[in-house]
Specification:
The chain is elongated and about 80 Å long. With 122 residues, it is an alpha+beta fold.
Length: 122
């Protein structure tokens, strides 16, 4: 079953349900999510992550430990938002520093005369 946010959801999978519940609470979540195998997901362009249940908690494998799914998704959204804001800020700063562009007027160049061999001989 496909969730309205594009996540392929298995209604019997606690992880899929937790991801979809998060997306319903955060409809503007800016990161794409793709399930590539049971317990393996891709969040945006950062590679595949392992998501599992630890007791009653849904957690994401991060480095040598685990992080709650909620915190992981919040941080991914914040990271992407910061990257986008930073890129926009850099672009705005570059445009502000650039001198205004004046329309280019065609410059007169040297007059070129093409003579044919017959015209030169005459």
């Amino acid at each position: 079953m496909l969730h309205e946010n594009g996540v392929d959801m298995n209604p019997d999978d606690a992880i899929d349900k937790a991801i979809c519940a998060y997306l319903e609470r955060n409809p503007d979540f800016p990161v794409s999510i793709q399930k590539v195998a049971p317990n393996y997901y891709v969040f945006g362009d950062r590679g595949t992550v392992y998501v599992t249940e630890r007791g009653k908690h849904i957690v994401v494998r991060v480095g040598g430990g685990f992080k709650s799914l909620q915190v992981f998704m919040d941080e991914r959204a914040l990271m992407l938002t910061r990257e986008t804001a930073s890129a926009l800020s850099e672009r705005t700063a570059m445009l502000a520093q650039a001198p205004p562009q004046q329309p280019q007027q065609p410059q007169p160049g040297p007059l070129k005369i093409h003579a044919t061999a017959a015209a030169v001989a005459a």
